[in-house]
């Protein structure tokens, strides 16, 4: 057997050995996993559920909170709570709800908003020169008053709701102090995301102006 014939014989033997290997010893590509069926994917158990979110702006005199033992810097365990606000609201001369708004939305769906807008006219007396003398005239000044509440509610569980919210208010603060002066105006705005226990109000924002504190409170409910 010459050298060329011998090499061909060895190659044939090697190929025959490979074909006789057990199937488990052969190299194979891993199987492609079957594509998941959309029907097999877990459905959102809260899809289509309706929620109600209520927003309140509460004004409280700081002196009242101090008398209740509330820490002015919010230090625990005497930081202001919803229970403190409810107690203050039982004294109309010391606390009141300035603005309230409610919005209904579907779980996980945006563009849920409620808006109120109105125009108030306040008289202002002024003197007008005329050939007959200096009679007194009344001029009316218009002020816009309104609020907007936008929400994106999401159900975490039957007891907890997560709400992304945006609230703003602008308008006259209170009645005029002087006949010839226009009323003071204010503008408040709060936005963010909060987790709320169903049916339990929570303070999610606050501001202080002089002797008064302004609190922004949210409450969420499941309607179905």
Description:
- The chain has 224 residues and is mainly β.
- It has a domain at 50-117 and 147-222.
- It has helices spanning 3-19, 62-67, 82-89; strands at residues 50-61, 95-106, 112-127, 136-155, 160-172, 185-197, 202-209, 212-222.
- It is flat and about 85 Å long.
- The protein starts with a helix and ends with a strand.
Oligomer: single chain
Estimate the mean pLDDT confidence: 81
Low-pLDDT regions: 6-16, 18-27
Q: Which structural class is indicated by helix and strand composition?
A: mainly beta
Order of helices and strands: HEHHEEEEEEE
Summarize the entry for a quick read.
This protein has helices at 3-19, 62-67, 82-89; strands spanning 50-61, 95-106, 112-127, 136-155, 160-172, 185-197, 202-209, 212-222. The N and C termini lie far apart (92 Å). Helix content is 14%, strand content 47%.
Secondary structure blueprint with pairings:
Layout lengths: L2 H17 L30 E12 H6 L14 H8 L5 E12 L5 E16 L8 E20 L4 E13 L12 E13 L4 E8 L2 E11 L2
Attribute tags:
224 residues; mainly beta; 8 strands; four-stranded antiparallel beta sheet; single chain; 3 helices; flat
């Amino acid at each position: 057997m010459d050298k060329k014939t011998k090499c061909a014989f060895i190659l044939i033997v090697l190929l025959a050995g490979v074909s006789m290997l057990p199937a488990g010893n052969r190299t194979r590509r891993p199987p492609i996993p079957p594509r998941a069926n959309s029907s097999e994917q877990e459905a959102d158990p809260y899809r289509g559920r309706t929620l109600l979110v209520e927003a309140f702006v509460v004004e409280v005199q700081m002196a009242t909170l101090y008398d209740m033992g509330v820490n002015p810097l919010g230090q625990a365990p005497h930081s202001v709570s919803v229970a403190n606000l409810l107690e203050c609201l039982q004294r109309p001369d010391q606390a009141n709800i300035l603005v309230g708004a409610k919005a209904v939305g579907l779980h996980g769906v945006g563009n849920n908003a409620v808006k109120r807008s109105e125009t108030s006219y306040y008289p202002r007396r002024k003197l007008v020169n005329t050939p007959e003398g200096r009679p007194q005239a009344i001029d009316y000044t218009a002020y816009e008053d309104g609020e907007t509440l936008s929400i994106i509610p999401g159900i975490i569980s039957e007891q907890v709701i997560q709400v992304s919210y945006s609230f703003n208010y602008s308008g006259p603060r209170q009645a005029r102090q002087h006949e010839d002066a226009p009323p003071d105006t204010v503008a408040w705005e709060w936005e963010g995301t909060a987790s709320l226990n169903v049916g339990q109000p929570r303070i999610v924002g606050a501001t202080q102006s002089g002797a008064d504190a302004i609190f922004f409170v949210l409450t969420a409910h499941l309607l179905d």
